[in-house]
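The instructor's notes for this session suggest beginning with a concrete chain rather than abstract definitions. Hand out the sequence below and ask the class to guess, before any prediction is shown, which regions might be ordered.
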Amino acid sequence: MAQMYNLLLKLWMLTSIAVGKFSIDKIDGQLTTMELINKYGYRGQTYTVTTSDGYRLGVHRLGRKQGADPKLLPILIVHGLLGSSAEWVLLGPDDALAYQLANVGYDVWLGNTRGNRYSREHERMSPDDVEFWNFTWHEKGMHDLPAMIDFVLNQTQHPSQQIYYIGYSEGTTAYFTMTSNLPKQNAKIRLAHALAPAVLLDGVRSPLILTLADNSALLLPVAQSANMGEMFKWSEQQNGFVQSLCPPYARRNPCIVMFENLFGPNPQAIDMNALQALMGHLPAGASLKELKHFNQIIQSGIFRPYQEDYTARIVKPYNLSASNVPVHIYYGVNDWIVHPRNVRQFATLLPNVREIRAVGGKKFTHIDFIIAKRVKAIVYSKIITNLQNDTRALPEKFENVS
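After discussion, reveal the predicted structure:
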């Protein structure tokens, strides 16, 4: 039996996996974001953006061959926890969000926040230093996003001096941290899209996360005593091993079981080839302190800065009423991380919600925003429609930029 399994695995490893919904190959799980962009015939560039506290972030830019439409505002897209810029190109040229935006003329920028595989440098520290990992998503909101936004504005020089922002999961957590605390940044964003916004989290339904949260008082001190700053580091060997454990022909492979317990069950929406390729990119690295911060939000039900000591004075919540950028909010009814009740509650705290929409029916989950078979029609096409409608509403002085 073991010999038969190994033979099937070897045969599969040698063949293309472009037999499912998406136009992707087996090798796509092993390529970098920039290699994927170049492979599918798009213009791509890599930049290094330095934050105000010294972290060097890798930012990827892509556009169609004939270049971006100069009338359109640039777009910054930011990934979730443990993710990377690969999330937005992984589904291939026919479906991935970054390519769809580039196809209609947008100048697309893909951020990588501190600590992931593309952002592991600092002016003074090494990832081998525990101090390098002394950050949460608060620092990503206060330093990473402003640095990336200012860099994009400086590079593109659009007369409006504004961008569009799209965030997924922790990409929204950092975004609402920034816009709640740094009012000047609000003026630089014309319109935002929040996908599965991880802001209020006391309604988490994932048994895996709830077990970890319930045992955090025991687990976190053990990790700290071992001087663990980094969690779930990306490596070619580790991610390649995970890929081998989750072949697309095995319908109940370990990745499916883990994803269902983490994000919510929706097996019919999962393209097995896309999932297997995703595991070549995920996890991409995070800090232990990020997980601790999320745990505090889960336990307290309050969106606020990290609290080092529970015996210290309680810190004030973030002032979400200061986040006044127009925003479209999309969520999944079957999201076991971000409960629909939490999304609706969170939306009432914002002053400028354009739309709050449950997408994909009753079974749509947290991870479906990235790899669901019909995510292009369910989510991405709606984003593009919103952006195009907004473009038509731009002031005339920006419509004929040469």
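Then share the key points. The first strand starts at residue 43 and ends at 50. Residues 93 and 99 are 6 Å apart (CA to CA).
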